[in-house]
TrEMBL record:
Organism of provenance: Saltatorellus ferox
Transmembrane region(s): 6-25, 37-55, 80-100, 112-130, 166-190, 210-231, 251-274, 286-304, 316-336, 342-363, 379-397, 417-439
Domain of life: Bacteria
Membrane-related topology note: Multi-pass membrane protein
Primary location recorded for the protein, binned into one broad class: membrane
Protein name (Swiss-Prot/TrEMBL): Na(+)/H(+) antiporter subunit A
Amino acid sequence: MSAAETAMVVALVAPLVGAMATLIVGRWPNLREGLSILSGAVTFGAVLFVARALHAGESISLQILEPVAGLRLAFDVEPLGLLFALVASLLWPVTTLYAMGYMREHHERHQTRFFCFFAISIAAVMALAFSANLATLFVCYEALTLATFPLVTHSNDRSAWRAGRIYLGILMGTSIGLLLFGCVAVYGIAGTTEFTPGGVLAGPLADGKISKATLGVILGLFVFGTGKAAVMPMHRWLPNAMVAPTPVSALLHAVAVVKAGVFTILKVVIYIFGIDLVRDLDAHTVLAYVAGFTVVAASVIAMGKDNLKERLAYSTIGQLSYIVLGSLVATTVSVQGAAMHIAAHAAGKITLFFGAGAILVAAHKKNVSQLDGIGKRMPVTMACFFIGSLSIIGLPPTGGMWSKLLLVEGTAASGDWLLVAAFLVSSLLNIVYLLSIPMRAFLRPERTDIDHHGHGEAPLSCRIAMVATASLSVLLFVRPDLVYDLIGALGAGAQS
């Protein structure tokens, strides 16, 4: 086993070791949380080592077992998976730091259980990111659903259990009822589920083993079966999960679950179908319009939500469909933009959820209408919220600008101007429902009919985490090459 393969194993195992350590030292909160951050740092360090090895041209893979010919439980490193692993492993210790202040200030119960399942969820993400084939990805996808269920139901009240039932019902229902059939169909047609540059289905199509119409149906199974991508109407689990503590919302919306969904669709488009084949299917246009509808509809709904976390939840639904739409447009540039948006959205949206949680623990406010003048009491929080908003909208100086430019450019290259309009209209709506929040926080006077509890900023650990993620959004603007150099070869050989 090479040093790079050993590092990949460390990245896969370190979160599980961290979860066990959390349980063992759970009686000592400082030690528990210190070990959680250490586990995150070790995981990120291991992924960085893998990234350097891949950049140097090393081939990094690991096979666990092969129970059936052509079906392996195996891991492999390629640029898209490495990007996902880098984002998740970087944001894990930052979110843990934030959770330290939030969970204590909010007097949350069962904090040891929270940190334990948080680590297990990251382990599932690492395994999913490095999956070498559809079979491994499906197993890890389901493991992630099960690992995050206790986080969604953390509050252990009626609303939490209702949200948990919806969460588990939609995600498991779509994956078993649709996604699994898509995986089985690929194996039956191609005799393999291995992720292969250019895809594995073009050959069977050329040999007459399958028709374009059937391949279109299979593509639809993946799009709607990947419930974590929240394409309408498979989106209801996401706003319902907002009853969970804010660090869980940050995990769901930026680090793990939703990114696992769009990552799955991108992997399937690039490495199972191939973007040339996707663009040649009539169904890709229909599915792209469904994603385009989700982009606009979610933005319209977000405008009408007064609850801050619900507004951010519908924003996430729309932003995820940016990535799905970029995948289904299937031009080289749109696919690269979709991959870049995974990183840009992660940095921007986690900052927004950190801000929402900080407002809750410091000011005890949940609604946008209650935030007039709060910027004077919480200037750091609202400044970070402003930067996160710019990233989601796609404005400088944040990384969201570059990913959205690539998405619009790639979609324009396809000649479908209605889909380009969906991107632009949604971005205008983003301005309305996001920028209005820091504007009213800084520019309006405080409401005299609301008890402000004499509050100031959130705990220091929450502020440090917010500043770190907001700074990451700015860094992705100044140094987009950090992401683009990694994913620049995605879709190579396709017509742009």
